[in-house]
Amino acid sequence: MTVKNPLRPDSVRMGPIDFQTINRAALAALPALLGRWLPDGKKQGHEWVARNPQRGDRQPGSFSVNLNTGRWADFAQADARGGDVISLAAYLAGISQYEAAQELAKMLGLKGAGV
């Protein structure tokens, strides 16, 4: 029986994945993705403002995603922020960025991105 080394990064254990290509495709589909992930949100300028489903927000306001860059943050939590769509997907689903990239690639129909 082979035991995986839990200290090795996912990319070493499972093979490389093209994060840049997946992020670029996800950014192009971001409004649709946000409508699915954060359906109570709304567009305000270049931002999607919604309740943070990870902390039981009662009203939108402190959690937002930049629709041009994919950067996101919950300004009520210092450690809840990221620079791209993959990190947002990982945060919302409670999974690793590698797993989130795989799921996004499948969702977006990307072949050859390491999936």
From TrEMBL:
Family annotation (Gene3D superfamilies): Zinc finger, CHC2-type domain
InterPro entries given in the database record: DNA_primase_Znf_CHC2
Record protein name field: DNA primase
Lineage: Bacteria, Pseudomonadati, Pseudomonadota, Alphaproteobacteria, Acetobacterales
